[in-house]
Amino acid sequence: MHPSAFDYPATTPETTVVRLGGKDVPDEYNWLAETSPRVQAWVAEQNRLTSHYLAGLPSREFVSEAIGRYDVARPDQLPRFAGGAWFWISSNLESGRPAVRTGPKFPASGSVLYDTTDLESAVPTITWISPSSDGKILALGLCEDGSENNRIILIDVSTGHVLPDGPDIPLMDNWTGGVHWLPDDRGFYFTGLPNRSVDGGFEVFLHDLKSKQTGRADITWPQKTDYRGVFIRPGTTWAIAVQGLSDPVPIAVLDLADPHAQWRSFVREAEGGLPGQVFGNQYIAVTFVGANRGRIVSIPLSGDGSTDTWREIVPESNVVFRTIIPAGNRFYVTLFDDTYSGVHIYGLNGEFIDSVRLPALGAITEGIFPIMNLTRPTFETTALFVVSTLTTSWGIYKHDPSSGGLETVVAPATTIPDAIVEEGTARSKDGTPVRYHVVGKRRTETGPRPTLIFAYGASNRPLIPEFPGAMATVVEAGCIFVHAHIRGGSEFGLGWWLEGRAQNKQNGYDDLYAVAEDLIKKGFTRPAQLAVAGKSNGGMMAGVAMTQRPDLWAAAVPLVPVLDLVDWFTRPYLHGNIEFGDPDDPRDLERILATSPYHAIRPGVAYPALLAIAGATDPRCPPCHASKFVARLQSAQAKGKPALLRIHENEGHGAAAAAEVRMRLNTEWLTFVLSEITSPTAS
User: How far is the C-alpha of 488 from the C-alpha of 320, rounded, in Å?
Assistant: First the structure.
């Protein structure tokens, strides 16, 4: 079907007014945020139109076959060791559904401890696991609707039976690690949603196994809406209360060895966060205070956490420090060196011991946001890393201290044959160098090729140079995949985030355009062959890109995006001030309204082809953002290019997607992209 033949569902404008920062903002499609029968009917019609269009694209079969090879699951959850046994998330070999296995050796032996095969849910997911220190009880998070919201399941390891009377308070996701056991295993802390919705904010609870009672932790939190959690390193007697998704700070401590101790205020503020771990009575952490790329300090837990008690043990250098991982009387530190991952090993006084030799230039899997790195298992027995490159999928490796290298535990599942990586540097509008990687097949002929750029640039989150997963299909098709490091992330330290957020948000978008223009200048591609995609805040980036620079792209795909900043600021989940600015500041409000992709659409502009994808159960980026954006674009588009919407049922933000759902979603949007950038009109 040619786009000009599209018979878009009727979308009647009904102007309402939303007030933000003292300004009335008209919104003719705000009714699409309702959960009414007419909205459901409208979404169903849009989904039918999108299905009909995608079914007719010639590349669909090729994409589906390629994704079957490349869309391998990223092992975000490393196995856990407790009570002499390993615990790890696996799958039922017959049903393919998630399961948990346990055994004395990972992954060579193990029996199924918990299986989701017989659950009534169509899309069960195990989002996290946490064994008690004695290995007698396994706690896990079970999500059954794709949203990432999960409930705590407690398993008796000796019998495999589900224990009754676990906490009935749901968890938002796995970002705070599920449950964190007390040293004597009599209970655990967890971060839950007291009103069963993010509208009630986050609260930290303590659950007692004997009394089966759950109560709020007596902690004073400085921020009301940000992520928070209590973390306890196994084998230690200090509980650390941490707040901040993008910049985690240890705001309070509790000495669990003292039965009369109360929670005590610790570090109240540390720009960029203070992610660390407990060693005895010291908190060893990475800090960006006085160090753009990070330095490592030791802080006595008996003190008040003020900066005059900090002792620098590893100074700032030319690498960006990331995460402290305890390993007995030493610690590993993950780092970035010109965007690629590395690992150093230090003694507790900061003496350098060794560097871990990785298989190739690539990435060590880490949490999407900094607070998530505090949840990764410690290396009390075996140092395990998940490593991938831009051309080889993820493998699990064990560090061999004698050689300094990594031994393969679980080999990578796939690689892109004949693919090479080329390094590029563009100059942004203000002269800042912007790094990017180009992945493509080896070839002898010259000339521009169809290209997909993927980027993020927000929330102090790095876009690590890892295996592109399903997006490797683009390379398989003879096209180019570009992985761009734009400001707003953390690949080059604290300044890289600060220069790309709030009042500086436009810098990240200018970085993206600089990469695109550099690729065009160097002959890699041209606008008629160029697509941009991003997920979540990266979806926001894709929406901004196509509305600010419609001339630069053939297609755009915002995946589970933020697209309406007015709506975003009215929601209780992670108010956007830290990332997008302050709507109560008139100058900031003007910039926010000009940047918001939904509000930036203008009638009669020739916009790129669009496929906006959202999840019906997404607790972070509501699907109405994609709906409203598509509705407005369908009425404004002057180019005859498609403006399509796909909202997936039983699917949220993506992290809890069942394998078959993920593969179907990726097949759709990559088929769309390849159709637009490889069509006869694009060549």
Answer: 15
The most distant pair of C-alpha atoms in the chain lies apart, rounded to whole Å, by 75
CA 415 to chain centre: 23
Helix (H) or strand (E) holding 395: strand 395-399
Taking alpha carbons only, the member of 322, 324, 320 closest to residue 298 is 324
From 546, 597, 534, select the one nearest 568 (Cα to Cα): 597
DSSP for 527-574, written as a single string: GGGEEEEEETHHHHHHHHHHHH-GGG-SEEEEES----HHHHHTSSTT
How many angstroms from the chain centroid is the CA of residue 3?
Answer: 33
DSSP label of 371: G
Q: Is 37 a domain residue?
A: no
* Look-up of token digits 């759902």: 661
Please enumerate in sequence order all residues whose Cβ is within 8 A of that of 311, keeping only pairs 6 or more positions apart, or say none.
Answer: 297, 298, 299
Q: Do 489 and 401 share a domain, yes or no?
A: no
Q: Which phi and psi (to 5°) does residue 298 adopt?
A: -115, 130
Residue 218 has what DSSP assignment? Answer: -
**CB neighbour list of residue 205: distance below 8 Å, 6 or more residues apart:** 167, 169, 189, 190, 191, 192, 214, 215, 216, 217
Query: Cβ distance 179 to 154 under 8 Å?
Result: no
Residue 61 has a CB neighbour count (10 Å cut-off) of 11
- DSSP codes of every residue in 91-155: E-TTT--EEEEEESSTTTS-EEEEE-TT-S-SS-EEEEEEE-TTSSEEEEEEESSSSS-BEEEEE
Distance between CA 1 and CA 269 in Å, rounded?
57
Rounded CA-CA distance 284/233 in Å is: 12
**H or E element at residue 659:** helix 659-677
Per-residue pLDDT, 3: 41
Range of the domain at 360: 227-412
CA distance 61 to 177: 38
- The confidence score (pLDDT) of residue 638 equals 81
- Reported in sequence order, the residue ranges of 193-290 that DSSP labels E, i.e. its strands, are 203-208, 213-216, 228-231, 238-243, 249-255, 264-265, 276-279, 282-287
Alpha-carbon span 361 to 465, nearest angstrom: 9
The verdict on 120 and 245 lying in the same domain is no
Please confirm whether the linkage preceding 433 is cis (ω < 30° from 0).
no
Within a domain: 565:
yes
Bridge partner residues of 385 (DSSP): 397
CB 650 within 8 A of CB 683: no
**Domain shared by 255 and 213, yes or no:** no
Does 23 fall in a domain? Answer: no
Sheet with 643-648, strands from edge to edge, namely 419-427, 433-441, 480-484, 451-454, 530-535, 555-559, 609-615, 643-648
Mean pLDDT by 10 residues, the chain (683 residues): 65 94 94 95 97 94 96 88 95 91 91 95 93 98 93 98 94 96 98 82 94 96 89 96 96 97 96 97 98 98 97 98 95 98 98 96 92 90 94 96 91 96 98 98 87 97 96 97 98 98 96 98 97 97 98 98 94 75 91 94 96 91 96 90 93 79 92 93 66
Choosing from 412, 431, 455, the residue where a domain stops is 412
Q: What is the pLDDT of residue 576?
A: 58
User: Could you tell me if 340 and 361 are in contact, meaning their C-beta atoms sit under 8 angstroms apart?
Assistant: yes
Count of C-beta atoms within a 10 Å radius of residue 601: 23
List the structure tokens of 473.
């299909």
